Amino acid sequence: MAGEFWLNDEQWAAIEPLLPPHQSGAHRKDDRWIISGIIHVLKTGCRWQDCPACYGPPTTIYNRFHRWSARGIWRRLFAALVENGSSDIHMIDSTTAKAHRSAAGGKGGPNLQAIGRSRGGRTTKIHAVVDGCGRPVALQITPGQRGDAPIAADLIAPLPPSLLCAADTAYDSDALRRFLIERGTQPVIPNNPTRKHTQPFDPHAYKRRNIIERSFCRLKDWRRIATRYDKLAANFASACYLAAIVIWWT
């Protein structure tokens, strides 16, 4: 069938040692086929039940994705496989994904499941840090109305310091600027028009910020990320982690 996704030998060699060991009981379906099927569904946006039979039973494919999301396995794969990237510059920004009606009804309510209301309606916001090549090195999801600057420091803190950090005016806060400078990173953030005391700004370095916009375009080529269908925040975040891993490979 045209359009199928299959992990190649190099990709599988990187993933296989990081997977949970087989446990006693019923034999686990072939991990390589199942993970390839999961990625196929996330990329094409089809329903789980419509996943091509060549990957295995659709119920098995969904259950593997859901259960490993709950256990944090996809997040750990992302952390292990995605290297820290080039250290000369990091870029931070966010994008929103509109929540489909099928995403409603998650346990604990929409706010707990990272679905909020913004200008675009019911949305989830994807916060990301990318390296100089546009490869995601940190990801987090929040309700769509959540501000960008308040979570920026927590997203950047686990990463090794870069020489520069580029962001738009939504990140123009004194607290974030101090945080970056204390790490030895030069903020490349334009001054908000409402700022009384302007800060130094390098417009030449800021031109590279378009890299993260292109990275979001690649992320949203995955139809289950461009539109959120998952009720659970953990599942949608896992879809973002898997997409980021494939972006690193391609």
Summary, kept brief:
The protein is of the alpha/beta class and 250 residues long. The chain folds into two domains: 43 residues; 163 residues, Ribonuclease H-like superfamily/Ribonuclease H (Nucleotidyltransferase, domain 5, 2-Layer Sandwich), CATH 3.30.420.10.
Protein described:
This protein is of the alpha/beta class. The protein folds into two domains: 29-71; 86-248, Ribonuclease H-like superfamily/Ribonuclease H (Nucleotidyltransferase, domain 5). It contains ten helices and seven strands. Strands 1, 2, 3, 4, 5, 6 and 7 form a seven-stranded mixed beta sheet that branches. Helix 2 crosses helix 3 (58-70) and helix 3 crosses helix 10. The two termini are 22 Å apart. The mean pLDDT is 91. GO terms for molecular function: DNA binding; transposase activity. InterPro entries: IS402-like_dom, Transposase_11. Residues 7-78 form the Insertion element IS402-like domain. The chain crosses the membrane at residues 232-249. Keywords: Membrane, Transmembrane, Transmembrane helix.
